[in-house]
């Protein structure tokens, strides 16, 4: 019987794994053929998120030149580097274009087809446009992958779960809000992928509370404005009359930072410097484990500060009061208070100093006397962010972005470090295109978008939803509709995916935050005793090995590519041993 590998999930992560199998197979697998079964109800390559069947108004939040599915020599991998075109090279776009998601889906489909073509003779790929329902089988034997609408399972020597982002059952708060909405005839849209949400219940002119100010909100904003026939005339929004009125707030109360709109010239910060493999190894070797805030964050803080000041001193020395060599020497030896004193002495303008706490919570302690004052202040905040993120005079911001990518590559090795870091990273490094923030300003001026403030609280009483924020003391907004503009939390036990829930019920381990635990070396699923399953792997945002994304910016190390390579090599080595044993 021919060996068989089943990959559940044929989107970007499954495609990236297939590319690494094709790259490594000539070295590692010279067996008697192999069947690779891709299981996904959505098209291979694009998967659900990047499928063609969605609005052309929805963009990527990265420049086309910053999107690649191919390795380069900055990726730490054991397999061969196989370079390929970025999205902008493949699609012949200007590098700074924000492509729509359907075009990215076409790029991913092409990558998938290239990977299939690159597989050695004897390796055959089969796509099953169905959902996988469960995986069964002994640790030491063939696995059975049961598919929706198929009476017999797929037999697999190995199974890789590349499920991507998952739907989730509501938590206690969401369940209570949904029940209240049903009882009182209100509209409640729980956390979801905005492109999949039914927005038809949000009526023209109706007040809608929106909790969440990240990329899911941007999609919502687009679909409820341009998606309903409105248009932009320069910096002015011309409504169609079909738009609801959005009242948006969040924990921070401000939108994610704009994408940076210039290139880095000159010397890059030499990263990692203070938080690299040696520091990560030391954390992993601690007998009692480590605490993120106590043990990890000080290293991250120092690393990001180094990236920032390296760029400031080397690219903008006229704004410093000390030679870089002296600053670097003193910075390396200083603890946090000493670094703060050093920066105060060496960087005269506070605007040139890196304050991560202020960046993370810009409205902490801020109070406005009226909603109108908040609207004016928030428009000023967004305008200032747009100006700064498109001005190369502030290029230390781009150096910090590169520092964030470097740090993320190390944090992946530590496993589940809690949700705070991922939100902080997205807020600073994975925000919307600048044009989207300019549209936000236009909608605010048109009276169709109102800012609620930070630490937004939603309550259900008196037959309505009510939103408040300490940013405007004493003010509240009442509405008959509430949208939770964020992705569902990737928790194993609340996942709607039956396969994942059953794995958990059978003993697969989860982290305190509900992520599936995997072996950081190769992605094998761990049980509650810490044992890696010899025949089951998992990659993606539902695991404690989650990365910033399945694709990445060129020449930034590509943590997902490193993981894909390790899993592909482990799978091929296992199958090679298996075929040799059978042949003997």
From TrEMBL:
Offer one Pfam family short name for this entry. NAD_binding_9
- What InterPro entries would the database entry show? FAD/NAD-bd_sf, HpyO/CreE_NAD-binding, L-asp_N-monooxygenase_NS-form
User: Which parts of this chain are annotated as the region Disordered?
Assistant: 528-556
Query: Taxonomically, which superkingdom?
Result: Bacteria
| Species of the source | Streptomyces mexicanus
* Name the UniProt record assigns to this protein: FAD/NAD(P)-binding protein
Q: State the SUPFAM superfamilies in the record.
A: FAD/NAD(P)-binding domain
TM ranges are none
The segment(s) forming the FAD-dependent urate hydroxylase HpyO/Asp monooxygenase CreE-like FAD/NAD(P)-binding domain are 6-165
């Amino acid at each position: 019987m021919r060996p068989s590998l089943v990959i559940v999930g044929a989107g970007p992560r499954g495609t990236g794994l297939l590319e690494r199998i094709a790259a490594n197979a000539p070295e590692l697998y010279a067996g008697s053929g192999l069947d690779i079964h891709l299981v996904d109800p959505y098209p291979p390559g694009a998967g659900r998120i990047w499928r063609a069947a969605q609005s052309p108004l929805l963009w990527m939040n990265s420049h086309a030149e910053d999107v690649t599915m191919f390795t380069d020599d900055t990726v730490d991998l054991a397999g061969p580097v196989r370079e390929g075109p970025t999205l902008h090279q493949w699609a012949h776009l200007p590098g700074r274009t924000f492509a729509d998601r359907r075009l990215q889906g076409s790029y991913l489909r092409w990558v998938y087809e290239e990977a299939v073509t690159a597989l050695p003779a004897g390796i055959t790929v089969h796509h099953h446009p169905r959902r996988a329902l469960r995986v069964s089988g002994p640790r030491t034997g063939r696995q059975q992958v049961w598919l929706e609408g198929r009476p017999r399972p797929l037999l697999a020597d190995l199974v890789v779960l590349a499920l991507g982002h998952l739907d989730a059952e509501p938590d206690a708060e969401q369940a209570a809000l949904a029940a209240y909405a049903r009882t009182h005839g209100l509209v409640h849209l729980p956390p979801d992928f905005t492109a999949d949400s039914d927005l038809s219940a949000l009526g023209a002119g109706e007040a809608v509370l929106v909790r969440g100010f990240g990329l899911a909100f941007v999609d919502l904003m687009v679909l409820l404005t341009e998606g309903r026939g409105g248009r932009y005339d320069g910096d002015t929004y011309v409504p169609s009359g079909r738009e609801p009125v959005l009242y948006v707030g969040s924990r921070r109360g401000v939108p994610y930072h704009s994408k940076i709109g210039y290139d880095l010239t000159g010397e890059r910060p030499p990263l990692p410097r203070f938080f690299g493999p040696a520091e990560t190894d030391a954390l992993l070797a601690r007998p009692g484990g480590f605490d993120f805030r106590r043990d990890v964050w000080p290293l991250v803080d120092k690393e990001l500060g180094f990236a920032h000041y390296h760029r400031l001193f080397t690219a903008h020395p006229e704004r410093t009061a000390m030679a870089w060599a002296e600053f670097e020497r003193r910075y390396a030896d200083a603890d946090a208070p000493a670094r703060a004193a050093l920066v105060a002495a060496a960087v005269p303008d506070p605007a040139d100093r890196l304050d991560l706490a202020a960046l993370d919570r810009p409205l902490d302690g801020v109070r406005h006397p009226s909603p109108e004052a908040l609207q004016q202040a928030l428009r000023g905040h967004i305008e200032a962010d747009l100006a700064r993120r498109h001005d190369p005079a502030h290029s230390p911001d781009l150096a910090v972005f590169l520092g964030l990518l470097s740090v993320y590559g190390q944090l992946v090795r530590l496993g589940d470090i809690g949700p705070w870091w991922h939100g902080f990273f997205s807020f600073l490094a994975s925000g919307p295109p600048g044009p989207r923030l300019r549209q936000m300003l236009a909608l605010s001026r048109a009276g169709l978008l109102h800012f609620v403030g930070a630490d937004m609280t939603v309550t259900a009483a008196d037959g309505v939803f009510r939103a408040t924020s300490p940013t405007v003391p004493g003010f509240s907004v009442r509405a008959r509709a509430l949208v939770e503009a964020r992705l569902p939390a990737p928790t194993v036990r609340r996942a709607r995916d039956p396969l994942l829930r059953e794995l958990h019920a059978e003993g697969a381990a989860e982290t305190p935050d509900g992520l599936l635990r995997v072996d950081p070396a190769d992605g094998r699923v761990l049980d509650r005793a810490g044992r890696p399953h010899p025949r089951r792997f998992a990659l993606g945002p539902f695991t404690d090995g989650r990365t910033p994304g399945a694709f990445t910016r060129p020449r930034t190390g590509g943590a997902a590519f490193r993981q894909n390579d390790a899993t592909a090599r482990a799978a091929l080595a296992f199958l090679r041993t298996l075929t040799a044993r059978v042949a003997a």
